[in-house]
Specification:
The structure holds 2 protein chains of 2 kinds. Chain A folds into 4 domains: 227 residues, Response regulator (Rossmann fold, 3-Layer(aba) Sandwich), CATH 3.40.50; 103 residues, Transcription Regulator spoIIAA (2-Layer Sandwich); 132 residues, 2-Layer Sandwich (Transcription Regulator spoIIAA); 34 residues, no CATH class. In chain A, 34% of the residues lie in helices and 14% in strands. Chain A contains 20 helices and 19 strands. In chain A, the strands form 6 sheets. In chain A, strands 2-1-3-4-5-6 form a 6-stranded mixed beta sheet, with helices on one face. Chain A starts with a helix and ends with a helix. Chain B has 2 domains: 96 residues, 2-Layer Sandwich (Alpha-Beta Plaits), CATH 3.30.70.580; 117 residues, Alpha-Beta Plaits (2-Layer Sandwich), CATH 3.30.70. In chain B, the strands form 2 sheets. In chain B, strands 1, 2, 3, 4, 5, 8, 9, 10 and 11 form a 9-stranded mixed beta sheet that branches. A two-stranded antiparallel ribbon of chain B has the order 6-7. The radius of gyration of chain B is 20 Å and the shape is elongated. Classes of the chains: A alpha/beta, B alpha+beta. At the A-B interface, helix 1 and helix 9 of A face helix 1 of B.
């Protein structure tokens, strides 16, 4: 068989074989809707994504739907497939992806866009939506990057904005008559465009002024003016993921996952997730415990992650962790938390979970000085940081990781000095508080990411730092982080700049994306593949200046490409948060009192 | 604590699982079937499992053997009814008393070796060649030792038996019992390479597919199925 002989030649062939525990393999019939969930990155990355597990199980619970999976083949596999003319295939049935009714991409990061084009090409599907005939799969997309769908709007038939558990089922109701031949594709698209949460770009034509700045959209059919995001109102009672696919391959996050809540109340001004996943919706502890038992007894995972945007803020986190650790300790199942707050309470909880397995600790002060942390509304004080060090090191840990961002608004060298000071404070505190028995040397790892302003955040108007600017900050930091106990890692600025272009891009970028793809760009999120010079060639060929999207500050009254999406948050709130940021003024956690983002009034009715 | 020994197959797409992936799969299947696993001590406790001999990725097998330590016995029926992904099938299982390690006891493996050539080989007197090969007394090959140096070894000392069982157009199938385990192993692909060189064949190999048929231990010089090893 063609596929098997290829698998004998490639690295990590188990990425491509399917058949994992808890996968579906339905008998295919003519009237069955064949859906393929497509993740535009390798298996190990894609399978770590919880959204895939949710949609896979949700859709496969429908009798007339069969949801399969496909990931981006690694370059050796792609080469072998192209040589043998093997088209992109689903993992479940090994069917050509081109035979699917619907192909659904998840948009988790902008640098995966070229992989979408490459996967369509490997499947033998036309790239541009306008060129696809009715027999080709409908290409849909969702995920956080769908909040600014414009840079890939010409390749995708429709976008799902927000949480899709309910929306997908509503969409299937308009898809079924199309599948049955009762309505044509355009009628189906038009019906879908009138479902709340679905954006069909072909019905909206972007309008620009003489300087290529957008001035609005012209509607080309009877469709809503703006697309309102969807979210699950009853998160505790809604669809629950009670089992998960258990991968063979050692994937990035190889463990059971339970979502404790959606949304976040912190209001960090740089964080898109904190804005677009509002409102906060918690699951009851008893629901959590019940689902955890179901997942663990159907998967055999040895680790359980309590997931959310800010897990330590779950109302009953302390008692919940104690209960879960107590219940599963005997089975050697470790409980893990994806993110920790910088406070002593977090450390107490960590002490509890480390009974089973001792892991490293990671904290995110995000900025080096109190002033800059106030600008970004990251509610962490210097005292918090010192207390955390004291409690971590006195408990016997000797290694911590710290995450920071560089290129934040109003940042100066003083703020970068602050990063070095925080790192040095760690090594110094270690010496003072470490217990006798700790013989190992202290290690503080500082990682810096380059800040990318994102849509629907208070920083959506600001200019992003350019590549040279990022490098001079990195070099400055290197010169300050001379302490031998401090390790410094930094993220490549050019990838962050390209991410910045697409994060706040408009529809004109589709041409650049296509050009970059034809010039060979793919896996742009992988350092081994990323070629900025090729991307620059693509921009030049399309006569588009990438700086237009990055280093250009927008005025708050400029029409933004993503203004067509209604994320539920008032623009006036974002403007006021932006102004407060420039004054280094805090906004408190909205659990302490409504901060008037407008979400409840706009999407639910009534104030918080 | 008891030792449960399991005999299982590894076929179809499962041949593409690496050894670490296979171990993880067994661990998880044992967990969700609630086997009373015994764990190692230390900061990261892991179940006590041993595999007789890691199988190279791409090889299929009819005879893989593993052992797992349990806190107490559970019915063998329950062990054999555990659901594995298609391609892995438990053939047999039993509790064993032996203190001998599977890995240390393994002495030989039997393989079916299917070689496809790019050019026809039907005209070659391969039967005779195999006979003379086995009678050659010494056929040397180079093998990398653990310390990184190359060692020259006699391939025939590693061959317990070797037969050409099929020949057609571009394909041959060999059946061989080769030394395998702690005292040194001969990889079946290496055997094919050495043979082709010895025969001075000009035909190029398109691909080699290998199936493991049986694992043996040596009982006073006699090869016996490893799964049945008792004392």
């Amino acid at each position: 068989m063609n596929l098997e002989s290829i698998l004998h030649q490639v690295e990590k062939p188990s990425r491509y074989i399917g058949g994992e525990i808890n996968t579906f393999n339905k008998e295919v019939s003519d009237d069955m809707i064949r859906f393929c969930f497509a993740f535009p990155d390798v298996y190990e990355v894609g399978m770590s994504h919880l959204g895939l597990q949710i949609i896979y199980n949700l859709l496969n619970q429908q009798n007339d739907v069969f949801c399969e999976r496909v990931f981006a083949p690694w370059s050796d596999m792609e080469k072998a497939m192209r040589e043998r003319q093997l088209k992109l295939f689903t993992l479940e049935k090994k069917s050509p992806v081109g035979d699917m009714d619907i192909l659904g991409f998840t948009l988790q990061y902008e640098l995966s866009y070229t992989n979408i084009l490459n996967m369509l090409n490997l499947a033998g599907i036309e790239l541009y939506a306008k060129d696809r005939h009715d027999r080709e799969p409908l290409i849909i997309a969702g995920g956080p990057c769908a909040y600014n769908p414009e840079p890939i709007a010409e390749f995708i038939d429709m976008f799902f904005i927000g949480e899709s558990e309910e929306l997908l089922l509503e969409f299937l109701d308009v898809y079924r008559p199309y599948k049955a031949g009762l309505i044509n594709k355009n009628e189906m698209l038009l019906k879908a465009a009138n479902i709340k949460g679905i954006y069909v770009p072909k019905f909206y034509a972007p309008q620009y002024d003489a300087n290529n700045i957008m001035i609005g959209y012209k509607r080309l059919a009877n469709v809503p003016e703006r697309i309102q995001k969807r979210f699950i109102k009853d998160f505790d009672g809604g669809f629950q993921l009670e089992t998960m696919i258990v991968p063979f391959v050692d994937i990035v996050h190889d463990r059971a996952v339970i979502e404790l809540f959606r949304g976040c109340t912190k209001g960090c001004r740089f964080c898109q997730a904190g804005m677009i996943y509002r409102p906060i919706r918690e699951r009851k502890p008893e629901t959590v415990v019940d689902i955890v038992e179901k997942i663990l007894t159907s998967t055999g995972f040895e680790e359980l992650s309590l997931s959310s945007l800010s897990t330590m803020d779950y109302s009953g986190i302390g008692p919940l962790v104690s209960e879960l650790v107590g219940k599963y300790e005997k089975d050697n199942i470790a409980v893990s938390l994806p993110s920790l707050r910088l406070d002593s309470f977090s450390i107490d909880v960590v002490k509890e979970i480390q009974k089973v397995k001792k892991t490293g600790l990671t904290f995110a002060p995000e900025a080096g000085t109190q002033r800059l942390r106030d600008v970004i509304n990251k509610g962490v004080s210097e005292e918090n940081i010192l207390d955390t060090y004291k409690s971590v090191f006195s408990q016997g840990w000797h290694r911590v990781k710290l995450y920071f961002m560089i290129g934040l608004p109003t940042e100066t060298n003083e703020d970068l000095d602050g990063i070095a000071e925080i790192a040095n404070l760690g090594t110094f505190t270690f010496k003072n508080v470490k217990p006798e028995y700790v013989k190992k040397a202290v290690q503080v790892t500082v990682s810096t990411a380059c800040f990318v302003p994102k849509p629907f955040t208070p920083f959506q108007w600001m200019a992003q730092e350019n590549v040279d600017g990022f490098y001079s900050k990195i070099n400055y930091l290197k010169s300050k982080l001379l302490n031998k106990k401090v390790v410094y890692n930094y993220h490549d600025p050019s990838t962050s700049v390209l991410e910045g272009v697409f994060a706040r891009g408009d529809r004109r970028l589709n041409a650049v994306l296509y050009k970059a793809y034809t010039l060979g760009c793919k896996f742009d999120g992988w350092a081994d593949f990323f070629k900025m010079s090729v991307w620059m060639d693509a921009f030049e060929a399309c006569e588009i200046d990438p700086d237009f999207y990055t280093t250009r500050a927008r005025s708050t009254d400029e029409f933004l490409p993503w203004d067509i999406i209604d994320a539920g948050i008032n623009k006036a709130y974002l403007v006021s948060e932006y102004e407060k940021a420039l004054r280094a003024e805090n906004t408190e956690d909205c659990r302490q009192g409504c901060t008037r983002c407008g979400l409840n009034i706009n999407l639910i009715g009534g104030e918080c | 604590m008891v030792t449960l020994r399991i005999l299982y197959t590894k076929e179809h797409y499962m041949v593409f699982l690496g050894h670490l992936e296979l171990m993880k799969l067994f661990e998880r299947i044992f967990r969700f079937n609630k086997l009373p696993l015994s764990y190692s001590g230390g900061f990261s406790p892991i179940p006590k499992m041993t595999f007789a001999s890691p199988l190279s990725v791409g090889y299929s097998s009819q005879c893989e053997i593993m052992e797992v330590q349990l806190d107490n016995e559970i019915p063998i029926d329950r062990v054999l009814s555990m659901r594995f992904p298609e391609g892995i099938r438990t053939i047999s299982a039993n509790y064993v008393e032996t203190k001998k390690s599977l890995m240390a006891s393994l002495s030989h493996s039997e393989y079916l070796i299917k070689v496809e050539f790019k050019q026809p080989i039907a005209q070659l007197p391969l039967d005779e060649w195999v006979e003379t090969f086995l009678q050659a007394g010494e056929v040397t090959f180079e093998k990398k030792a653990k310390n990184g140096n190359m060692r020259t070894l006699n391939v025939l000392e590693f061959i317990e038996s070797l037969k050409l069982v099929y020949k057609m157009d571009n394909d041959i199938v060999l059946r061989a019992v080769l030394q395998s385990g702690s005292q040194g192993s001969l990889n079946p692909e290496k055997l094919v390479e050495v043979m082709c060189k010895h025969f001075q064949m000009t035909q190029e190999i398109e691909n080699i597919r290998i199936e493991r048929l049986m694992l043996f231990y040596s009982d006073e010089g006699q090869l016996k199925p490893l799964f049945e090893m008792k004392a």
